[in-house]
Design goal:
The chain is mostly helical and about 210 residues long. Helix 6 packs antiparallel against helix 9 and helix 7 runs antiparallel to helix 8. The longest helix has 25 residues. The protein is globular, with a radius of gyration of 17 Å.
Amino acid sequence: MTALPAWTIYALSALGGYLLGSIPFGVLTTKLAGINIREVGSGNIGATNVLRTGRKDLALITFLGDTGKGAAAVGLAFALLLSLDQATRQVGMALAGGAAFLGHLFPVWLRFKGGKGVATFLGTLFAAAWPMGLLAAGTWLLTAFIFRISSLSALVAAALIAPLAMVFDQPHAFIVMALFMAVLIYVRHRDNIRRLLKGEEPKIGKKKSAEA
């Protein structure tokens, strides 16, 4: 049994999660292929913008990396806190997951200019409570199938996950984490929301002009 006080455990969970989340897979993957992702489409480092390079393989690697780092942060917190009581473990996992998500949005390695967090959001949910992850992914896929708009799919999934977590009686720490991530997804998608309202948001697979 660890002798560390709870605040130290929580701080370490958050710090570790943030550093994991800060790994910019979109930047690293495209750089190895000789592409500056900041000069492509929206300039975002996520998988959707990487797809605009025409390299589906790079987009897949970016998606898996961004998803995996959220899942890894939660999984590591779970493993390290396994000997503690359930409530402490749940809070530690939520802090690690939320911090990984924050790290993706504001990575220390990129002067705090990161992505929009959708893949990391999904990975975090899957690791923290896989049924909720399935619901979020299913919501994203269904919305994307109907409307073919990535940002809209993310916004719908983010809006629904916390209410669904309440319906399915998820731990309080998980609900707070889900709300935290949902609010930040809406903040980071504010330009997309404006374009959606104007009917100007590009559809999945379409290249976005630099002027957009």
